[in-house]
Amino acid sequence: MVMDEFQEISAARADVLARIEAAAKGAGRDASSAQLVAVSKTQPEDRIDAMLRTGQRVFGENRVQEAHGRWQARREGGLDIELRLIGPLQSNKAKEAVALFDVIETLDRTKLAAALADECAKAGKAPRLY
Q1: Burial class (CB in 10 A: 0-12, 13-18, 19+), 84
Q2: pTM of the entire predicted model
């Protein structure tokens, strides 16, 4: 990775965080009540690694299989991150989603809710659901 690219990513993240802080302050809220979710979809691994080096620890993915390929080894290696599913979820992927994600932001139908509830019971863990 070229250092200029890391600096660019770091500066862009700092800018977004400053804008979040200013917006929160303008709304009379604590900036810690908002959270930056970096969407890693289609990003090459070196850019994700650069974002991780900036301290970013919350990432959104829109596909279960891509997220598994990208994040499972990092988690097994001890990386402390929060993963959010931000794309649609098919009921047949509920087991994998419950195993991988900390948050599922796309609960949009009864059949999916039932599948997630079943998998949460089996796994003994439950991601936050929106």
Answers
A1: buried
A2: 0.92
